[in-house]
């Protein structure tokens, strides 16, 4: 069952199949298998519901997670359109089910607009946190009721809200169960892994126009959005070998930028300037939603392409090309596979270069320079694999195949720099 029947009835198009290059069969199956559930709603206005005497819950302490929450109507029933959903055919991630909600601790005699969940994650912030703002401002309401961790937001996130017309003093960040006289709930115009819409695209475009109100001169110079400086914390997924790829692209005339070092105006101007945008799969690719023209998008993937990318591409009218990028050869018999969604992965630089040559972005026979000084991402990756190999050696010390596997892995790791 679709989580929002009111949205399921709206006119939509299904995003076209992703153009995948060099993907293993499993990755293609996992990517394309969800395509039939995706919807780009071809509407600029979505349903809005109004509830009197609603109770808003910022979290479910009985479940112990901040993203649990939502709102109840006057009869105590969960209001489904206040939930947080991550795919089309699912129960809400956030609801008031599974335990008894706490009674309201505060009562507000005002009308509030449900702003939903504001995650402190750049990509999800663009997709989820802007989803309700198609219906802002709302006459008679001066504040948005939101759930999130504002101490973890960066300046770009706050600036996105401000440019969308929501200053900080217009946000009520819920920290306790709260009863309100009236709750106005716009249905979400974007739903991670499930829905995009004309309304969401217009919101992002409006935000981008507010950040960069002047026309930006376009250039044919390709742009590469790197995550090599972002992925320096232990929890950030890095791409070992990206520094070498950057050298190749710079020598070929690419502009290379680091989105986390830019303010909102600079980032929007950047993606509006370049007609071709290349990036590793990650939040940086979602900057393409702020363009004012349809760019050529090349995504380098180490995992199956999540549906949220196909939806963002559809929202701006783009058909992106995704190329398979990981060095799948770094393995040891019996060793656990690297979880690319959680750990750094190694890039098959030669394979990526060949794919970019086939896309016409690099000349045939492009030279790949040797690895130089080892960046921090590569060091993290090396530590991860040395730990894996050490555990493997201790568990299977008499395995005759291990020395050869260890030597092969060591040789591949050596390419990442000294």
Quick structural overview:
The protein is α/β, with parallel strands linked by helices and about 425 residues long.
Would you write up a description of this structure?
- Helix 10 runs antiparallel to helix 11 (402-414).
- Strand 6, helix 3 and strand 7 (143-148) form a beta-alpha-beta unit.
- The protein is globular.
- 28% of the residues lie in helices and 19% in strands.
- The protein has 418 residues and is of the alpha/beta class.
- It has a six-stranded parallel β-sheet, with helices on one face. Strands 5-4-9-6-7-8 form a six-stranded mixed β-sheet. A three-stranded mixed β-sheet has the order 1-3-10.
The portion of residues forming beta strands comes to 15-25%
Tertiary shape: globular
The whole-number mean of residue pLDDT values reads 83
SS content category: alpha/beta
Spatial strand order of the main sheet: 2-16-15-14-11-13
Order of helix and strand elements from N to C terminus: HEEHEEEEHEHEEEHEEHEHEEHEEHHH
Total of DSSP H or I helical runs spanning 4+ residues: 11
What radius of gyration results from the CA coordinates? 23 Å
Strand-helix topology:
Layout: H1 5-8, E1 12-13, E2 19-21, H2 25-32, E3 39-41, E4 48-57, E5 70-72, E6 106-118, H3 122-129, E7 143-148, H4 155-163, E8 171-173, E9 178-186, E10 195-197, H5 198-211, E11 223-225, E12 239-240, H6 242-251, E13 255-257, H7 264-273, E14 276-280, E15 296-301, H8 307-315, E16 321-324, E17 345-346, H9 349-358, H10 376-395, H11 402-414
Parallel strand pairs: 2-16, 3-10, 6-7, 6-9, 7-8, 11-13, 11-14, 12-17, 14-15, 15-16
Antiparallel strand pairs: 1-3, 4-5, 4-9
């Amino acid at each position: 069952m679709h989580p929002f029947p009111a949205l399921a009835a709206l006119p939509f198009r299904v995003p076209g199949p992703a153009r995948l290059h060099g993907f293993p069969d499993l990755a293609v199956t996992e990517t394309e298998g969800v395509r039939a559930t995706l919807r780009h709603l071809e509407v600029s206005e979505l349903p809005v519901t109004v509830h009197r005497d609603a109770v808003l819950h910022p979290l479910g302490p009985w479940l112990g997670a901040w993203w649990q929450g939502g709102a109840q109507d006057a009869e105590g029933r969960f209001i489904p359109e206040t939930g947080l959903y991550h795919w089309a055919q699912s129960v809400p991630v956030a609801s008031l089910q599974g335990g008894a909600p706490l009674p309201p601790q505060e009562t507000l005699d005002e009308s509030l607009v449900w702003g939903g969940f504001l995650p402190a994650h750049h990509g999800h912030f663009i997709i989820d946190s802007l989803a309700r703002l198609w219906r802002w401002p709302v006459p008679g309401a001066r504040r948005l009721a939101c759930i999130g961790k504002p101490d973890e937001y960066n300046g770009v996130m706050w600036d996105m809200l401000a440019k969308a017309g929501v200053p900080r003093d217009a946000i009520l960040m819920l920290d306790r169960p709260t009863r309100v006289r009236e709750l106005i709930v716009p249905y979400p115009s974007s739903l991670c892994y499930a829905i995009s819409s004309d309304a969401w695209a217009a919101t992002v475009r409006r935000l981008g126009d507010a950040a960069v109100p002047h026309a930006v001169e376009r250039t044919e110079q390709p742009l590469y959005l790197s995550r090599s400086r972002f992925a320096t914390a232990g929890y950030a997924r890095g791409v070992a070998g990206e520094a070498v790829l950057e050298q190749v692209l710079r020598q070929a005339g690419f502009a290379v930028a680091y989105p986390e070092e830019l303010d909102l105006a600079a980032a929007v101007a950047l993606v509006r300037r370049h007609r071709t945008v290349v990036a590793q799969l990650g939040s940086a690719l979602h900057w393409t939603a702020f363009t004012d023209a349809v760019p050529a998008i090349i995504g380098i993937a180490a995992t199956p392409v999540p549906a949220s990318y196909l939806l963002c591409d559809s929202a701006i009218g783009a058909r992106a090309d995704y190329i398979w990028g990981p060095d799948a050869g770094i393995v040891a018999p019996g060793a656990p596979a690297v979880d690319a969604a959680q750990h750094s992965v190694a890039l098959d630089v030669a394979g990526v270069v060949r794919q970019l040559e086939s896309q016409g972005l690099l000349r045939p026979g492009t030279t790949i320079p040797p690895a130089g000084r080892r960046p921090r991402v590569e060091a993290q990756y090396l530590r991860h694999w040395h730990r894996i190999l050490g555990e493997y050696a201790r568990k299977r010390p008499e395995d005759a195949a291990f020395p050869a596997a260890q030597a092969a892995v060591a040789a591949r790791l050596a390419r990442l720099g000294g």
